[in-house]
Structure formats: C-alpha cells, structure tokens
Design goal:
Helix content is about 25%, strand content about 35%.
C-alpha cells in the first residue's frame, strides 16, 4: 500500500527522459531494417551508355510483370495473377531511351539494362549584325 499511495521521486525525473525518444528509435530501427532488406534485394550500376538494375523477383514469371518507362522514372509492378505483390518506382539521374533498353528475367532475378537517352542540343546561334 505504501507504493500505491506515495508518488515516486524517480518517476518524473528519471523515467521520462530515458524513454522519451523510444518511439523514434523504434521507427528508425524499423526503417533501417526495411531499407537494408530492400538494398540487399537489388543492385544498381551505371556506365557511360546505360544503367543496370538487378532485382530479386523469386516466384514471379515474366508474364506476371509489368515494366514501364516514363522519362527518367522506371516503374515495375506485378500483375494481379502473380503469386507475390511487387511494386516499385526508380528515378534515375537521366532520361531512359526505352527503344534501346532491355529486360531479362532468369532464375528469379530481373536484370534491366536501361539505355541513357542522348541529350539533344536545340540551341541555335544568332549572327551579330
């Protein structure tokens, strides 16, 4: 009965500051765990002419995937009949030429070789009179 009626001296000074940021640290831990899991499931490389994305897609057939390219954004998602749900969008640093790009799915690994679009210079030079 003594503990129930008497206020704790340590309750406001010790416990609250020690546990005040617990919610954020748990969120940060979960975000880091999910981020590292996403990072280990794929790889990204770049050279002068193309970007290469390699993603793990176990259990999904090539007929069950949809890949779309719009400018510098590549969207990959599984179709409704796929046994697993996958949906992601990747924004690349440069526009992609979809006509020269290719996708290959082998043994559960999707490899996208995305050709960089060559920037067109539309500047014209004016003559000075």
């Amino acid at each position: 009965m003594f503990f129930a009626s008497a206020p704790s001296v340590f309750q406001s000074s010790v416990r609250r500051p020690a546990y005040a940021h617990t919610g954020r640290s748990v969120d940060r831990f979960i975000d880091d765990a999910l981020f590292s899991a996403r990072q280990s499931a794929g790889a990204y490389k770049q050279d002068e002419t193309s970007f290469t994305l390699t993603l793990d897609m176990p259990g999904i057939a090539k007929e069950q995937l949809s890949i779309s390219i719009e400018g510098a954004v590549v969207r990959i998602q599984s179709k409704e009949d796929a046994p697993r749900r996958y949906r992601a969008a990747y924004e690349l640093p440069q526009d992609v030429d979809s006509a020269l790009s290719e996708a290959k799915l082998e043994n559960g690994v999707l490899t996208l070789k995305l050709a960089k679009k060559v920037p067109v210079n539309n500047a014209t030079e004016l003559t000075i009179q």
